[in-house]
Design a protein that fits this description.
This protein has 256 residues and is an alpha/beta fold. The chain has a single domain, classed as P-loop containing nucleotide triphosphate hydrolases (Rossmann fold, 3-Layer(aba) Sandwich). Helices cover 34% and strands 26% of the residues. It has a 7-stranded mixed sheet, with helices on both faces. Strands 3-2-5-6 form a 4-stranded antiparallel sheet, covered by helices on one side. α3 runs parallel beside α6. The longest helix is centred in the C-terminal third of the chain and has 16 residues. The two termini are 20 Å apart. About 5% of the residues have low confidence.
């Protein structure tokens, strides 16, 4: 268990057996909304093959962190490195091409497009003649999508839309998958299904950075985690360390 530090968070090897060093490294990131500083020196590391979770209350900076990684926002200072390359100022569409997939908060599917068309949009940077196996893979992960393949996205249930958002992100063949609140608004049964699938995706080799309000679920599948408070990293450690930390248990796990 470590507290916030001024340098990059490079400790904590991958613990799931997939091995490999850092794939994604944020070093002293400061990101602003106008004059409001949302991230105040955030440093995190995601190793190849890991599930790393970001915990924190609303407004802590979790979504802003993902947006900064995926190029939807750019840091005013600090660096984002992906596979050893500085991507801090690259455009979002270029980052999709290099291997960053993002399933955003609120799903943001194309409501008037069919399930199939949404998935095809996820692969817009690729040759459409080569995406057949990936479509099959997504349908295997989410059989409900196969049943709804010709249905407009806006007519799907909340759980089905979440499946579609994750599937769309996977269609770009990312090397790291950013998931923002995948359980938001879902029933307990669907939450279990979604997290089971996320775990399966990771076991197939996908590196995942997960933002999630449901800390108990997130820590059940994560290898490591960071706790953000008002735009700073307050705590970091293995999932086991965070589950056993008294302040985390009280603030995020609902335990006294």
């Amino acid at each position: 268990m470590t507290h916030a530090t001024s340098g990059p968070a490079t400790s904590g090897p991958a613990t799931n057996g997939n091995g490999g060093g850092p794939l994604l490294v944020l070093d002293d990131i400061h990101t602003y909304y106008g004059h409001i500083r949302a991230l105040q020196g955030v440093s995190i590391t995601v190793n190849r093959g890991e599930v790393v979770t970001l915990l924190g209350s609303n407004g802590a900076g979790k979504t802003t962190t993902l947006k900064t990684i995926s190029g939807l926002m750019h840091p005013r200072s600090g660096t984002v490195h992906f596979d050893g390359k500085d991507i801090s100022r690259q455009a979002a569409h270029k980052l999709v091409e290099v291997g960053i997939g993002h399933a955003p908060e609120g799903r943001r599917i194309f409501s008037r497009l069919t399930v199939l068309e949404n998935l095809q949009m996820g692969a817009y940077t690729r040759d459409q003649k080569e995406i057949g196996p990936d479509l099959d893979h997504v349908m295997e992960l989410f059989p409900r999508l196969r049943e709804r393949v010709d249905q407009q996205g806006g007519t799907l249930s909340g759980g089905e839309q979440q499946m579609l958002a994750i599937g769309r992100a996977l269609m770009s063949r990312p090397r790291v998958l950013l998931l923002d609140e995948p359980s938001l608004g879902l029933s307990p049964i669907l939450v279990q299904q979604v997290f089971s699938t996320i775990k399966e995706i990771n076991e197939q080799g996908m590196t995942i950075l997960l933002v999630e309000q449901n800390a108990l679920q997130a820590l059940s599948i994560a290898h490591r985690g960071y706790v953000l408070q008002t735009g700073r990293v307050a705590l970091s450690g293995t999932a086991k360390e965070l589950r056993e930390n008294e302040s985390v248990r009280k603030a995020y796990l609902g335990e006294d």
